[in-house]
histidine kinase
Amino acid sequence: MNARSYFSVSGYMKAQNSSVDLVSLTNALPGAVYQLELTESGDWHFHFVSEGIESIYGCTVSDLQKNTCVLKDIIVADDYEAVVNSLLESAKYQIPWNKEYRVVRNGELHWVYGHAVTERQANGSTLWKGQLLDITERKQLELTVKRHQRNLELAERVANLGHWKLNLNTGKSIWSDTVYELYGLEKNTTDPGLDIVMEKTHPQDRKAVTDAIEAAKKSGVRDVEHRIIRSDDTVRWLRESGIYQLDENGDEIIFGTVQDITDYKEMELKLRSTGGEDEHTGFYNRRMMLRALQRRFSFYKAHPEYPYFLLALKVTNDSKTLARAAEIVRANIRDYDTPGHLGNGLITVLLSTLSRPENNSSLRRVITELSDAGIESHCMLEEAKNTDSRFDDILTRALP
């Protein structure tokens, strides 16, 4: 842009004679209103620029009148060529012009959005009539959101954690990139939804997943640990947790997270298969149960978004009572819950679900059946707290 700029005198005089002062009106608009011409010989002329140009470029109308090359010093060098090329393309194809770009105004970086309609003139030149707006605040917010999104994606990869949104009415989902990785699926060839989740879920665990969805409709939360079989036939353990709600259209929506817990589950199952059982209950003995609590506490401190619950009951410390109490407890907990006997009639269960309503339901069933069996007991349900400093703090609160 290297030619002089000038106001259209005839246009100005018409405005003066009009009942509406168009110059004052354009000066009152946000940003800057302009009329720019590109001649067939390649010269650029601003036929009109409103006074708002100073709030956009930091220069005066007079500056642009003298030499449009001043813009080369205002528009960020990396963006200048792109701006010019976008205008040339607009002129070539006679299409509207739209562009976001950066400028340096009074020593500070700002974002500008320019748009204009295009008109081919009889003499072969192109005329743009448009507006320039400062969009710095919006752009900074947009860049901040993108930065947070990148940070979230990085954090998810480090934690082996993904997030998703499931529409129960359509069965369709929105997944973060990590979810595709956890399921061993390619993003560009996968249509995320409940169908693909059920297809990948281990056949023996599919009912647990559907039960968790139904439970979410009732309690507002969803939590389930289940296995998946990936395309390479490897089996992985996932923990899914979600919140149920209705959206503005009345559709049933679950927002949730999914995390790979394979290492944790394999260690837990290995410990179960290597002994350490209490002779009266068949549950973990004291040493194994305390070790399980320590592992779960360590996981919670690393991921406080996943609290855990402990069910504790105290019964008479004799072999017959313990055996019967163990039968009742086992019948009313899930396969993935971890029960143990700490001695002296104190039975504890490290619960696998994060749903307090479900855990309270298990507690009530245990209390009822112990009472029906004539077994006196003291039962409690405790949840891990972010103030816990040791793994046994939750145990201390649960002790009768």
